[in-house]
């Protein structure tokens, strides 16, 4: 199933614009959001800037990462590692009018560091690669914790950020006590494999990633990432990403029926005018004329 024809949203920050949110508690812009959809088959994509804990109270929420699919149902939760792009589908259950009630907890580096420090824990280095997505059941304690949040959503603007921070750390304690696997994943840094740049670039060039995101994924500082990238590719990383996206856009214009707008968004570009300009500079024609030229050639 392909869902890249829509723009990939960076979260949590771009979720502020969502017209469907029922209520939210904010921390440093946004950290905790509660949604309640009456829905059937809503799909989309997002790129995670922070770790995400996704808790489904009722309904069905499906996440796809690469060729793997993960489905959560009532009273299940999912941990998704930061700096990856995923596809999602919100479907609900047919016998409950497709109601999907869930919470999203965004855990930025500051909150995670505060929790580790407060709990007296240190980052651990495991030999296995980071597991990007983990699904596990909600314990009774976590269920009680979720119920304790309901009063805060009645007047979310009156809730102090310090209290939101405390509630996030409380959640992490509950989860750490009930699920060691989650704790290991949250504390595990990205692999330091110095041969990983090529793999990281191929997996992420279509995502709305920044150089800081790519450096993080490679386990390098920004300066080291730029230097190592230049050594491998003999070109700056942003130029490489733009050219790979343009090559993919050319392929889609040639082989698919996607509109120019869909091609623009599905290849990581966020502005159609800019996409047309750089495409013309690379291939000599803007995208729409390029496709028309191909069709004329086919008729000859």
From TrEMBL:
Top-rank taxon: Bacteria
Keywords (A to Z) from UniProt: DNA-binding, Transcription, Transcription regulation
Ranges of residues in domain HTH araC/xylS-type: 195-293
PROSITE patterns the UniProt entry points to: HTH_ARAC_FAMILY_1 (PS00041), HTH_ARAC_FAMILY_2 (PS01124)
GO molecular function, one term: sequence-specific DNA binding
InterPro entries the record matches: ExsA-like_N, Homeodomain-like_sf, HTH-like, HTH_AraC, HTH_AraC-typ_CS, Tscrpt_reg_AraC-type_HTH
Entries under SUPFAM superfamilies matching the protein: Homeodomain-like, Regulatory protein AraC
Name this polypeptide is given: AraC family transcriptional regulator
Organism, as annotated: Paenibacillus stellifer
């Amino acid at each position: 199933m392909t869902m890249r024809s829509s723009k990939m949203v960076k979260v949590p920050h771009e979720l502020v614009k969502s017209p469907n949110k029922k209520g939210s508690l904010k921390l440093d812009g946004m950290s905790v959001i509660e949604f309640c959809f009456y829905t059937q088959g809503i799909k989309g994509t997002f790129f995670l800037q922070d770790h995400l804990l996704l808790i489904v109270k009722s309904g069905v929420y499906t996440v796809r990462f690469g060729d793997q699919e993960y489905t959560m149902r009532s009273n299940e939760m999912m941990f998704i590692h930061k700096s990856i792009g995923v596809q999602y589908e919100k479907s609900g259950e047919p016998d409950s009018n497709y109601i999907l009630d869930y919470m999203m907890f965004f855990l930025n580096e500051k909150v995670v560091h505060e929790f580790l420090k407060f709990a007296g824990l240190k980052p651990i280095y495991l030999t296995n690669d980071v597991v990007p997505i983990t699904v596990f059941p909600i314990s009774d304690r976590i269920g009680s914790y979720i119920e304790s949040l309901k009063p805060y959503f009645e007047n979310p603007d009156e809730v102090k950020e310090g209290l939101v921070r405390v509630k996030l750390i409380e959640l992490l304690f509950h989860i750490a006590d009930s699920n060691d696997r989650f704790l290991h994943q949250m504390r595990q840094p990205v692999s330091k494999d110095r041969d990983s740049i090529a793999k990281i670039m191929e997996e992420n060039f279509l995502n709305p990633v920044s150089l800081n995101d790519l450096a993080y994924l490679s386990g390098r500082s920004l300066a080291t990432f730029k230097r190592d990238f230049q050594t491998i590719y003999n070109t700056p990383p942003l130029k490489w990403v733009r050219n790979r996206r343009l090559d993919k856009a050319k392929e889609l214009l040639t082989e698919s029926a996607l509109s120019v707008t869909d091609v623009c968004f599905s290849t990581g570009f966020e502005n159609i005018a800019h996409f047309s300009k750089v495409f013309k500079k690379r291939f000599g024609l803007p995208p729409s004329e390029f496709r028309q030229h191909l069709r004329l050639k086919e008729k000859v």
